[in-house]
Design a protein that fits this description.
There is one protein chain. This protein is of the alpha/beta class. It is built from 15 helices and 33 strands. The protein has a 7-stranded mixed β-sheet, with helices on one face. A 7-stranded parallel β-sheet has the order 10-13-9-15-17-18-25, sandwiched between helices. The longest helix is centred in the C-terminal third of the chain and has 18 residues, at about 510-525. It is globular. About 50% of the residues are buried. One of its GO terms (cellular component) is extracellular region. InterPro entries: Peptidase_S8/S53_dom (IPR000209), Peptidase_S8/S53_dom_sf (IPR036852), Peptidase_S8_Asp-AS (IPR023827), Peptidase_S8_subtilisin-rel (IPR015500), Peptidases_S8_3 (IPR034197), S8pro/Inhibitor_I9 (IPR010259), S8pro/Inhibitor_I9_sf (IPR037045), SBT (IPR045051). Keywords: Glycoprotein, Hydrolase, Protease, Serine protease, Signal. GO terms for molecular function: serine-type endopeptidase activity.
């Protein structure tokens, strides 16, 4: 009788769909008698007094560009959105011939086809130095009075993370609406609206409410500004009090994601209304892995308009893995957020027949899994096809191994059967063990939640890297924040015994790190209401940490020091960001800063070498000159940092130099 393998070793290629790897997909097309219709975003000049910018007159102005042989009825059906606040233009279904005709009209600027983008905490606040009795939470009143706008896949409104209990009413400036019923809208969840005209035009369906049918939006929204929820956990792990970064901030939900594809026409419409509604912070965990000029990037264009109106915008850097120039959302005015680990893991250890043990991770921690050794095979050699595909009943458990590019980065997923996700190095040793014996055996020891990883934070392998392909002189990403094994609200049960109204899940991605920074920006805005978006961004970046919890340089997935194109300015430090210093003096009226530069192999002159401030908000300038030194080692980039140090503050800026 043949032995049925109970434990299988397979490769884990990159990361699962819930990470929502950024990609660009073609927009939907529709063939008609007049040709093939596609959705285009058309930029036009401002009416310049000829037309009021009120919505109906503006819509008529935009429809005038469509009077190109269309009937009035056809004209109205083709117009999808009239944008009013973030761009001057509209979205419409057009043929190529109609676009060419529109180009000849006075006031036309540009037209581009719609693009499809993809969707890109119990312990995290403590890891970031947020405490209820002191520090930035207390100083900012937990983000009170700030409105955070989430452009995502919607929200589950009756989740306890979005309870309005203890929340004050929204500020008087709020103009938005909540499309849920009155029992679901409250002083926490003050706004909710769907933008699915383009999405439903592509699908041929009807409109949908802003209810989250994916999970992504509920998770990100609670991460940014969810309230305190005691006794939260995911499948019994990561237990504690779940809370967002700014628990007293208000949330406005703009659903722009319907399934995996998010048309940029809908995203731009969401941005347009968010600006009108009066949000203070916009969080966008969406992106594409195909860089394009900023003038063609509608998130970049819309975000610039928002920032010019005093609204802070943070975006996910993307999940395109640890390769150069793979960033999403590279525009200089956006806070581009990469992902790093926290010091918590949900451990599952692979134990081999020879006694060796290799730590991995898994969210699913079965309490009844037998500790006895089981037959072990490698699916790449002699495994059955149904086992390789994880067919029903074919496996007792799994060991999932990283590809080489993912190195030591692992994460806790809710696998459908007992499993552990191990590093590439561990996987290679397990493979070698299988080859060394005719009867390889193994089991998995489930150890639950473990806190205290001395290497944290580590830049994870999926976090996209710089340099900035569209603006090489601007370093990106800007910052890294928690994005691995993040526990937050979830709209669906993870098992049959879970109440969906109080479900939490642990997932990973730059989509998770972005709302951490959005919430932190809300805290800073509440603590310093007159700070501009640029001042908030500067405070976050110049106060960032370069060292891990051990006081050593932050590492990447190879467990070597991470470079600037992985970390940006470093790991966010909310308490320091709330009192940053910066070259515009936001500290004490009289203060002096001296300069220090670390840039190996480069001669650097900073003029002046000392900055003396005599008043608050005084601005001083300095000049930095770099030249090649005799000790310069040939390398594509030289990286380091410039620090201004006073008796109380350290203001740091990363530097990357490339000599041609």
């Amino acid at each position: 009788m043949a032995i049925i393998p109970f434990l299988i070793l397979i490769f884990m290629f990159n990361f699962p769909p819930q990470l929502a790897k950024a990609s660009e997909l073609p927009s939907a097309v529709e063939k008609t008698e007049k040709g093939t219709l596609r959705t285009y975003i058309v930029h036009v000049k401002q009416p310049e007094g000829r037309v009021s910018t009120q919505s109906e007159e503006l819509k008529n102005y935009h429809q005038s560009f469509l009077s190109i042989g269309m009937t009035a009825s056809d004209n109205q059906q083709r117009l999808i959105y009239s944008y009013q606040h973030v761009i001057s233009g509209f979205a419409a279904r057009l043929t190529e011939e109609e676009v060419e005709a529109i180009k000849k009209k006075d006031g036309f600027v540009s037209a581009s086809p719609e693009r499809m983008l993809r969707l890109q905490t119990t312990h995290t606040p403590h890891f970031l130095g947020l405490h209820q009795e002191m520090g930035v939470w207390k100083e900012s009143d937990f983000g009170k009075g700030v409105i955070v706008g989430m452009l995502d896949s919607g929200v589950l409104p009756n989740h306890p993370s979005f309870s309005g209990e203890g929340m004050p009413p929204p500020p008087a400036k709020w103009k938005g609406k909540c499309e849920f019923n009155a029992s679901q809208c409250n002083n926490k969840l003050i706004g909710a609206k769907s933008f699915n005209i383009a999405a439903q035009t592509n699908k041929g369906g009807q409109g949908e409410p802003p209810l989250d049918d994916d999970g992504h939006g509920t998770h990100t929204s609670s991460t940014a500004a969810g309230g305190f929820v005691k006794n939260a956990d995911a499948l019994g792990n990561a237990k504690g009090t779940a809370v967002g970064m700014a628990p007293q901030a208000h949330l406005a939900i703009y659903k722009v994601g319907f399934g995996p594809d998010c048309p940029d026409t809908d995203i731009l419409a969401g941005l347009d209304v968010a600006v009108l509604d009066g949000v203070d912070v916009i969080s966008i965990s969406l992106g594409t892995d195909i860089p394009m000029p900023f003038y063609q990037d509608n998130i970049a264009i819309g975000s610039l308009a928002a920032i010019q109106k005093g609204i802070f915008v943070s975006c996910a850097a993307g999940n395109s893995c640890p390769f150069n120039a793979t960033l999403s959302n590279e525009a200089p005015w956006i806070l581009t957020v990469g992902a790093s680990t926290i010091d918590r893991s949900i451990k599952a250890t692979a134990k081999l027949g020879n006694g060796e043990q290799f730590d991995g991770e898994s969210l699913f921690q079965p309490g009844d899994f037998p500790p006895k050794l089981l037959p072990l095979i490698y699916a790449g050699s002699n495994g059955k096809p149904e086992s390789a595909l994880c067919g029903q009943g074919s496996l007792k458990a799994m060991i999932l191994m990283n590809p080489e590019s993912d190195g030591f980065s692992t994460q806790s997923d809710a696998h459908v059967l007992p499993a552990t996700h191990v590093s590439n190095a561990a996987g290679l040793k397990i493979k070698a063990y299988i080859s060394s014996t005719t009867t390889p055996m193994a089991t998995i020891l489930f150890k639950g939640t473990v806190i205290g990883d001395p290497l944290a934070p580590v830049v994870t392998s999926f976090s996209s890297r710089g340099p900035n392909s569209q603006s090489p002189g601007i370093l990106k990403p800007d910052i890294i924040g928690p994005g691995v094994n993040i526990l937050a609200a979830w709209p669906f049960p993870l098992d049959n015994n879970t109440n969906s109204e109080s479900t939490f899940n642990v997932i990973s991605g730059t989509s998770m790190s972005c709302p951490h920074l959005s919430g932190i920006a809300a805290l800073l805005k509440s603590s310093h209401p007159y700070w501009s978006p640029a001042a908030i961004k500067s405070a976050i970046m110049t106060s960032a940490d370069l060292l891990n919890v051990q006081g050593k340089p932050i590492l990447d997935q190879t467990l070597h020091p991470a470079d600037i194109f992985a970390t940006g300015a470093g790991h966010v430090n909310p308490p320091k960001a709330n009192d940053p210093g910066t070259v515009t003096n936001v500290g004490e009226a009289t203060s002096s800063y001296t300069v220090d530069v670390v840039l190996p192999g480069v001669d650097v002159i900073v003029e002046p070498g000392k900055l003396d401030f005599s008043e608050v908000n005084q601005e001083l300038t300095y000049k930095v000159t770099c030249s090649r030194s005799a000790t310069l080692v040939t390398t594509p980039y030289v990286q380091g940092y410039l620090e201004w140090t006073s008796s109380k503050h350290v203001v740091r800026s990363p530097i990357s130099v490339k000599f041609e």
